[in-house]
Structure prediction request, 421 residues.
Amino acid sequence: MSKFQAPKGVSEYFPQRSAHFEFVRATLIESAKLSGYQLIELPVFEDTELFTRGVGESTDVVSKEMYTFEDRGGRSITLRPEGTAGVMRSVIEHNLDRGQLPVKVWYSGQFFRAERPQAGRYRQFYQVGIEAIGLNDPEIDAEVIAVAHNAFVKLGLKDYHLEITSLGDSLTRERYTKDLRQYITTLALDEATFERSALNPLRLFDDKREEIRALMQKAPVLMDYLTPESAEHFSQVQRTLKALGIEFTINNRMVRGLDYYTGTAFEFVHHRLGAQSGIGGGGRYDGLMSALGGAELSGIGFGLGVDRILLACEAEEISLPQDAALQLFIVPIDEAAKAIAMQTAQNLRTNGFSVDIAYGDRALKGGMKAADKSGARYAMVLGENEISTGSAQLKNMQTGESISVTLRTLQDELAQLIKLI
Prediction:
C-alpha cells in the first residue's frame, strides 16, 4: 500500500522547524497586541458571495483561485482566500462598529488559494492580519504599516523594503478609470484579458505576463489624478512614516491584488525570495463595509505571510529559537520507580515545570540515551536506591556534572538551578 502524503501545495511544519514557524507567528502577533489590537477568531469557510462581492469578481483570487464547493444544504461555500472580508462580515454581524472606534482586531490562521505551487506560494498558507475599522485617519495608516515593520525589526530582518502608494478616493478613481479605459482600447488584447479589464481596468497592472506589463508601461498613472484631499492624506502618511523612521519608496503602479483597496496601499518586498518576494501588504478599503451591508465606515489592514517571512529569516540566516528545552527528564529503572516518576512529573508539571519520562521499560543505558536526545537540561535516575534514601542525582546534561537532591525538595532545588542558567 502506498503511503499517504500531504496534498500538493500545502505548507506544514513539524519539529524542529515548527518552533521557528511558531516564533515568527508569535512575533507578528505580539507586535499587533502592543498596538492595541485584539483577537478575532473567524471561520475558515464563508458564504461564497462574501468573497465575490467583497474581494471582487475581476480579481484572480475570485475568478481563478478560490476553493468553492456546495455543502449538504445546497449552499455555495468557499474556503477563505483572505482575511479582511471575513473580519468585516463579523464586525457588521456583531455590531462591533457601534462601540469605540476604531475597531482594532488581529487574526491568524490558514488561508486557501488554488495556485500553482512553488517556493513561497502555497495552496494552504498562513497569515497574521490586522484591521483598524471606523476612522479615515492617515496616522492609523502609518500605525498599521509600523506594526508590520516593528515585527520585522524584532525578527532581525534587514534585506527588505517598503513600497507605498495611494489609490485615491471615489472621485479620483472615477476620473482615472475613464482615461485608463480609453487607453486600454488602443491596446491589442486577447478577448479574455479585455473582458477582465472591462470589470476592473486596474487589474491589468497586476498582470504577470511580460507582454501585458510592457503594454501598461505607457498607461496613465493613478497618482496623477489624486484629488487634493487624497493627495493630502497620502502626504500625511508619508510625513508620519518619516517621523517614525520607517523608510519607503513610492510605487505609483502598485494596485494590489484585491478590488476593495482605496487610498493608502503598501507592500513589503524581500530581496532574497525570488519571484515570490512579497512578505506582506495591505491598504485602506473605504467602501468595503457598505458593500457588504454595513455602515459607511473606512478601514485599513494588512495580511503578513508567515510562510514567506520564515523563508526570509532563513534566507538571511537569522538564528531563530528552538522549542524551549525540557527542564527535567526522569529515567525510572524498575516498576516501583515508574509510579514515583509519574507522580513526581505530575507534581512538577502542575507547578509549571516541563518534564518528560523515559517510557517503555528501558534499561539505564537506554533511558539516559533518551534523556540526551530529548534536549533536557537535567536528567534524574530513579530506582530502588533513590526511592529508599529519598535522594537522587540530578545530572546537568550540558556539563555532565551531577548534584545530589532530595525528592521531597526537588521542586525548589530544580527552580533554583534553572534560575542560575
